[in-house]
Structures are given as C-alpha cells and as structure tokens.
From TrEMBL, chain A:
<dbReference type="InterPro" id="IPR027417">
    <property type="entry name" value="P-loop_NTPase"/>
</dbReference>
<dbReference type="InterPro" id="IPR003593">
    <property type="entry name" value="AAA+_ATPase"/>
</dbReference>
<dbReference type="InterPro" id="IPR050107">
    <property type="entry name" value="ABC_carbohydrate_import_ATPase"/>
</dbReference>
<keyword id="KW-1278">Translocase</keyword>
<keyword id="KW-0472">Membrane</keyword>
<keyword id="KW-1003">Cell membrane</keyword>
<keyword id="KW-0547">Nucleotide-binding</keyword>
<dbReference type="Pfam" id="PF00005">
    <property type="entry name" value="ABC_tran"/>
</dbReference>
<keyword id="KW-0813">Transport</keyword>
<protein>
    <submittedName>
        <fullName>ATPase component of uncharacterized ABC-type transporter</fullName>
    </submittedName>
</protein>
<dbReference type="GO" id="GO:0016887">
    <property type="term" value="F:ATP hydrolysis activity"/>
</dbReference>
<dbReference type="InterPro" id="IPR017871">
    <property type="entry name" value="ABC_transporter-like_CS"/>
</dbReference>
<feature type="domain" description="ABC transporter">
    <location>
        <begin position="21"/>
        <end position="260"/>
    </location>
</feature>
<keyword id="KW-0677">Repeat</keyword>
<feature type="domain" description="ABC transporter">
    <location>
        <begin position="271"/>
        <end position="517"/>
    </location>
</feature>
<dbReference type="InterPro" id="IPR003439">
    <property type="entry name" value="ABC_transporter-like_ATP-bd"/>
</dbReference>
<keyword id="KW-0067">ATP-binding</keyword>
Length: 527, 344
C-alpha cells in the first residue's frame, strides 16, 4: 500500500500508486430525461493533479456534484479511499476529506482571512467564556499559509484582497479542514490572465503537500501547464484518461469537441443574395464584445461557435436589445434597430430563442396556453383588449401539433410539468410562429433528447427555406456544422475566424475555440 | 393558481386537514378563554349571521377589507409588494373628506363620484412614489410602502389637528362632509349601503381583467417571470408601475367609501389597521379576487361575531385578531404542500 506516499515527489507519479477515487460506470439521468452522464469510468490517483476537460454541457459539473454529495448517480458505483462511496449530503463528502472550491466565492467580506478560514470551527479557539483567542487562531492559519507559500496575512480583511487572493482564501478554507481531495471547478474563469500563472503555481504547491487535486477546466493551456493526467468528457461520456505526455493540446481539443458528423448528408442550402441583418463593428457596454461585424443573408444560417463565456451571451442580449452598445450599429433590412427595445424589434421581424428556457424563455408556472401566446399577445390575433380564448387555444394546439409537444394532460397545465425537450419544442414553435425575418437562436437544443433535436433542426431548415435568416449561437459544434452555411468562432468577444461551408474542419475550429490559434491577445499565455 | 385548481386527492386531503387544524386550534383558544368551544363558535355565528341586521353589519365590514386586500393583490400579480395599503387608505379617506366638507357640485351623485375619484387619486399618489423609486432607483418597495404608512399617519394627524380641524369640535377631526355626499343607507337600522355593491363590483371587474384581458395577462406573466415577460415584449416597468397605481387607487377608494358610507369625517384612529388586515386577507386568498371575497367574509364574521362572544361569555372580543392570526399561520405552513413551491 502506498497510502502514505511521500509528499514532495509529485511529478513522478509511479504506476504503482493506488487510485484514491474510482468511478465505475457512473450514469446520471435527470428527472426531465436528460442523460448528463453515461457510464462514466475513470480513476484519480493519490497525489496527482487530475484535469477533467470538456465543453459546456459535457457533464463536468454533474460529475463533480456527484462526487461532492449534491446529486446521487442513477447507476454505477464510486470507490473513495478503498471504500464504497455514496454520500447523501456534502457534509458527508467533507467528512471523508473531499473539498470543493466553487466558481462563486462564499466568503464574509468584512472579517479577516483567518476568521473566514476558521469560520464554523471557531469553537476550538474559544476559551471558557466564549472569547476567541486571536493569536492562537492566527498562528494556526498562518502556519498553513506558510506551507503554501502564499503572500497573504491572516489579518487581512477579505474586502481588501484582490479576486485572485480571495480565491486562494477559499482554497485555504478547504485545506484547513484536513481535506486531501480538492476539487477546483473552473478556478481560473474569474482570474485575469496575469493572475493565472500565480494561481497554477499555487495549485502545484497544493499537490506538493501530498493532496490530490481535481482540476476542471476547458482552457487547455492551463491544463497542460499543471495536470499529471487528463480525463476528457464529451456529451456525458468519457473519451479517455491520458497521461499528459501521451497527448498534446491539439489531440485533446479534438477529443473534447468530437469529430464532425457526415457533411455529405446536408440538404441543399437556401442562401439568397439579399442581406437581411447587418452588424457593423459592435462593442457592448460590458466590454465583452469587441468590434464584431457580420452580415446575415436571407435564408442563411450563420453559426457562432465558441467555448461558453466568450461573448455568446452578450451577442444574444445585444441583438435582443437588453444590452446597450458602446459603439457600432445593427441594421435590419437596411434600417437601424439599435435604439429599439425588444417589443419593437419583434415587431420589425426578429424572434428569439433564449438559452435559458426556465428563466427567460418560458414562465414555468403559467399554463401552456399562456406561454404559447407570449410575445404574440399584442399582435391582435387574439383580440385587441380581451383575450379570445378559443383563438388562443387554437394557436396553442397548432404549435403543439406542428412541433409534437407532448403535453400529457391538457393545455391548461403549467409548463413546469413538461419535460425539457417538450418545453424547448414549445418555445421554438412559438418563436417560429412569428414568421420572423431573423431568428436568433441561442443553444436551441441544449439538454434535449435526440428526437427533439432533430425536430428543432428540421424546423430551422424549413425556416431558412422560406427565406428567413437564422443566427445560431451554440456550444454544440456538431449542431453548428450540421446547420450553418458559415461559422464564426468567438474567442474573448472577438470573431477570430470565419469559415464557409464546406470548409469546416473540426480540428481547426477546436484550435480557434480553445485559443490555440487566432488569439491576438499575446499577454495571455494560458488561454 | 393553475396548480391549485388541478384537484388531486392529496390536495383535497391537505385542504381538509388545514381546516381541521385551524378549527381545533380556534377551539383550544376559545376554551382557554373560558368558554366551551362549541358554544363559543355558536356565539360567533349568531353574532355575525344570526339575524338580518347582524348579517348586514358583517357584509358592511367587508367593504374596506375587500378593497384593502385587492390593493395588495393587484401589485402582487406583477410581483410588487404593496405593504402601504394603510397609508393609502388614510390619504384616500382624507381626500374624500376634504372634498366632502369644502366643495359642493350641486348634484349628490356628482359629489359622490368626484369625492370617490379624489380618494382614489390620493391613494394612487401615495403608491406612486414607492413604485417610481423602485423602478428608477431599485429601492425596495416593501420598505418604502411600509414606511409610507407611518408618514401618512402623521400627515393625517397633523391635518386633522391643525389646518383641517373641525373648529366646533373638541376632538382632532375634520368637519362632517356635506349631507349631499353621504352614500345613503339601504336598510333602516343598519349602515349597510351601496358601498358593498361597489366593492364587490370592483373585485369582479378585477377578476375578469386578470383572467380575460390582454393587459391582465401581461400582469400575470410579469409577476411569474419578468425576464420572460420582457423578452416577450411586455413593458415590464410600465406594467409594474401601473399595478402599483391601481393598488394605491383601490386602497384610497376603500378610505373614500368608509368616509362617504360610514364615518362622514376623518378622525383620530380612523382605521383600526384595515390596510394590514387586507394584506393578511390577500395572502390567504393567494391574490385571487374571488377568494378575497370569501376570506374577507370570514374575517368579518370573526370580527362582528367576537363582539357577541364577549357579551355572552368571558372571552374578550380581541380574540378575533388571535383567530385570524392562527388562520394565517396555518395557511402559510400548508401553502407549500397544497399549492406547491413557486419559484420567484
């Protein structure tokens, strides 16, 4: 047994080291039918930095939440430290030595580093009348700080620290609780490029203390800088676990994003000459989008690919009129629409499929009818003042029939009762019922089953055939390659490359998506 | 409310259990008060519904309760909290009194209509500033409307003590309104008047507005999911402002009807907390206008009936407040299980 593997000899993980964690055929199906994990098997060795990479929606978060006791797997088994592992609650996982650092910090701003670290365990520093011995508390925290070679003082107040240090305090908090298995969930997402390097060094330091680190990321530069082994997830399945030396960034990017589906099966394209939507040099006030320009033709599907968080959301909000432009203009059929609000944009021919059907696309507590007529309700087709329920019902029934929405009981039931795929079909059907000149679709098939996906894709094709333009923003490259006539890759708010069908090469696109190629930001070595 | 209407056996059972729980705790409280629960209940029922005068008195008491509850419900449809019904009601009452003792338009009906419109406008004004602060500055309307109650109370106290005090009266109160403003009683010996019909009519209109009108639909989806409403082309801010204005107007109208239909002037401690009782009624009724009528009736029965209970037993009339509170507690506790959790 190598349970007491000496700390400090990390980079030469020997083959004999026994795994601390073994996942065996772990599957997770959510109540709405979405299969987030499919028979996932991999192991994590004691004392290594194990990176888990995958696109958004590949199942990383689900997997981590299972390890941390937030969700239960539907099937499969997990062994942790040679014991059957099925935590019912995060507290059980913490008790076994698992710690998780979330993307969002959970720190009390107004108190010191040491107080935050000790919070919840402060009893051990209390004397008989409940007063906390500050000196003792600080020294216990600072010994850990020294071992990690961090440059913070236990007396610093959290509110005075920069974000990168706050994150280190989060990790300090986890380590202070005798954690030997640390999960870092996309820890560098909040950091500026120049802070990333420091942070990665810090993570290496944690490993050198003999801890096991699971590092979740989709930035391959970082992964290759520190990981010992890499597990690649794609669509809920493990593509493989590799020693770093056996793979390179290009091959991992390839496995992460997948191979293209058969492009030859594509139906004819419907692109016409007329430009319907023209976006000129736009930047938004949040500073994410930078000088983005493109034209959309009638009948064209223009795909926006990219790893989540590179400006997709901002692009959608800008087109919807919810996010202001700092410069540039948007023309619909030659007339400017930047100053119009959502309602006015709908009137001139835009329609929207949002990426978040529960929060923005639908009102889950309202009935199917009420959700179906939303956005159409002022058009007069259901009456001017009072709602003509028979017209509203007929309209709803037509969407349900055309898009095969399985409503179960009746159209008065709340939308919440539908499965994710059926909700999405309802949403897509409603938006296409506008007969829009331009449909802006963001993640239109996220979390839906194969049949619903096909139905939605077919409806997009019909829409382009009728001459409408479609902006397709999706994290699912296969979807974009199936549908789009052109692909623009977004990276850090910029269009890094534009490709026209049929010159789609997954490998090449994956390089642009992960910043291996096309990034003009030279200062950022790790992206 | 969609979910509440799909009746399942479980919901039916829980609803029955809720009623049993409330009744048994009521019984316990009356028993502690020194009366047998059975007799206690019968005193309450007799005192509120026993004869036609008592029934009319019970119905009459419902008027401010119904409107104060509706004043909470309409903003709640769009996701706004109007805790300021009390203050809006006071200002509305003052507005009606002000018109009533100072101006005369000649015809009684014109007088009454004008006075009621002014009361609604005063109530609306008192709801307008919290709504605007909320929309423009994101100030929490719960805080501003609540604080508005105390400001309004002091403002009215000043008005009836100084500038608008009845000079012939030793008490701090406004002069009586002119007789042409008084809404006549319909039955001898009872204060029951057309105000009841006005209140019921308004609530019915609200019911139809919410269920059938396009704007009512916009209120509903704004309250259910404002991001969704915005993306569906609803002018969410305008709708929210409008709902608060309607709420304020309803509370103001409650005050106006009280003055024209009952008190005929505004005096010290004009309202025994109608605004807050209305809030409770609205919560119990899940913002539904028709249920508001039912709950208001129940509250009214408790209030008039408990006076009778005090007359014939050792239980004090204040018990009605305790009984109402018990009901609120149990409904709040059961709500999650019966209606289901609703994400905000």
């Amino acid at each position: 047994m190598f349970l007491g593997a000496p700390p400090g000899a990390p980079s030469s993980i020997s083959r004999e080291v026994l795994p601390i964690l073994v996942c065996n055929n772990v599957s997770k199906t959510y109540p709405n039918g979405l299969e987030a994990l499919k028979e996932v098997s991999f192991d994590v060795k004691r004392g290594e930095i194990h990176a888990i990479v995958g696109e958004n929606g590949a199942g990383k978060s689900t997997l981590m939440n299972i390890l941390f006791g937030m969700f239960k797997p539907t099937s499969g088994e997990i062994t942790f430290k040679d014991k059957q592992f099925s935590p019912k609650h995060p507290s059980e996982a913490i008790g076994l030595g698992i710690g998780m650092v979330h993307q969002h910090f959970k720190l009390v701003q107004s108190i010191t580093v040491a107080e935050n670290v000790v919070l919840g365990m402060e009893k051990r520093f209390q004397n008989r009348i409940g007063k906390i011995n500050n000196a003792e508390m600080n020294s216990s925290v600072s010994s850990l700080i020294e071992r990690l070679r961090m440059s913070i003082s236990p007396d610093d107040r959290i509110q005075d620290l920069p974000i990168s240090k706050k994150q280190q305090v989060e990790i300090l908090k986890v380590l202070y609780r005798d954690t030997d298995f640390v999960i870092l969930d996309e820890p560098t997402a909040v950091l500026a490029p120049n802070e990333v390097e420091d942070f990665l060094e810090f993570v290496t330091g944690i490993r050198d203390m003999g801890k096991t680190v699971v590092f979740i990321s989709h930035r391959l530069g970082e992964v290759f800088a520190i990981a010992d082994r890499i597990t690649i997830l794609r669509r809920g399945k493990v593509v493989g676990t590799f020693d770093k030396k056996d793979v390179n960034r290009e091959s991992v990017a390839n496995m992460m994003i997948g191979t293209a589906s058969d492009l030859s099966e594509r139906p004819e394209d419907f692109v016409r000459d007329e430009i319907v939507l023209s976006v000129k040099q736009i930047s938004d006030i949040s500073g994410i989008l930078k000088n983005l320009s493109f034209d959309l033709h009638e009948g064209e599907v223009l795909g926006f690919a990219g790893v989540g968080g590179n400006g997709q959301e901002e692009l959608f909000e800008v087109l919807a009129g919810n996010l202001m432009l700092s410069s540039g203009e948007i023309l619909l059929k030659g007339s400017s629409i930047e100053s119009l609000n959502t309602l006015e944009r709908r009137k001139v021919g835009l329609a929207y499929i949002t990426d978040d059907r529960m929060k923005k696309g639908l009102a889950p507590d309202r009935s199917i009818v009420e959700n179906s007529i939303a956005g159409h309700h002022k058009s007069g087709r259901f009456g001017k003042l009072a709602i003509n329920s028979s017209k509203a019902n007929a309209f709803t029934e037509s969407i349900i029939a055309d898009y095969d929405v399985r409503t179960g009981k009746n159209i008065r039931t709340p939308v919440r009762a539908l499965s994710g795929g059926n909700m999405q079909k309802l949403l897509v059907g409603r938006e296409i019922a506008y007969d829009p000149a331009v449909l802006i679709a963001s993640q239109p098939t996220a979390g839906v089953d194969v049949a619903a996906r096909k139905l939605i894709h077919d409806s997009f094709r019909r829409l382009s055939k009728s001459g409408s333009g479609i902006i397709l923003i999706s994290g699912d490259l296969e979807e974009i390659m199936d549908l789009a006539n052109r692909i623009i890759v977004l990276y850090r708010g910029r269009a890094v490359v534009e490709l026209a069908y049929p010159h789609y090469d997954t490998t090449e696109i994956s390089y642009y998506m992960t910043g291996i190629r096309g990034s003009q930001n030279a200062s950022c070595t790790y992206s | 409310m969609q979910a509440a209407r799909t009746l399942s056996l479980r919901k039916l059972f829980l609803s029955l259990l809720l009623v049993v729980c409330i009744l048994s705790v009521w019984a316990l409280i009356i028993w502690f008060g020194g009366e047998s629960p059975f007799k206690g209940f019968s005193f309450i029922i007799e005192g509120s519904l026993g004869n036609h005068y008592q029934l009319l008195s019970t119905l009459n008491k419902m008027v401010p309760l119904i409107l104060a509850a509706a004043a909470v419900a309409v903003p709640a449809w769009t996701g706004m909290w109007n805790i300021g019904g009390e203050g809006q009601l006071l200002l509305g009452a003052f507005g009606a009194a002000l018109v009533g003792f100072s101006i005369d338009f000649g015809a009684g009906i014109v007088n009454i209509v004008v006075a009621l419109l002014v009361s609604a406008a005063f109530g609306m004004a008192w709801a307008a500033w919290p709504a605007i602060f909320k929309i423009k500055l994101r100030m929490d309307e719960v805080v501003t409307t609540l604080m508005g109650n105390y400001i309004a109370a002091q403002l009215i106290a000043y008005f009836i003590n100084k500038p608008f005090r009845d000079p012939r009266s030793p008490l701090a109160q406004t002069p009586y309104i002119k007789s042409s403003y008084v809404i006549p009683y319909l039955f001898e010996g009872s204060q029951f008047s057309a105000t009841f019909l006005i209140a019921i009519g308004i609530v019915l209109v609200l019911f139809v507005f919410r269920k059938k009108f396009i704007m009512g639909y916009e209120f509903e989806i704004t309250g259910s999911n404002s991001d969704f409403a915005e993306l569906s082309g609803v002018k969410v801010k305008k709708i929210k402002l409008l709902s608060m204005l309607i709420g304020g107007a309803l509370a103001g109208l409650a005050g106006g009807l009280l003055v024209l239909g009952m008190t005929q002037r505004v005096m010290q401690s004009f309202s025994p907390g109608y605004g807050f009782t209305g809030l409770l009624i609205c919560l119990l009724a899940f913002n539904d206008p028709l249920i508001i009528i039912g709950i208001a009736f129940l509250f009214s029965v408790l209030q008039t009936g408990s006076v009778n209970l005090q007359l014939f037993s050792s239980v004090p009339a204040e018990i009605s407040g305790v009984l109402q509170a018990v009901m609120v507690l149990f409904v709040a506790a059961f709500k999650t299980f019966i209606v289901g959790r609703r994400d905000s």
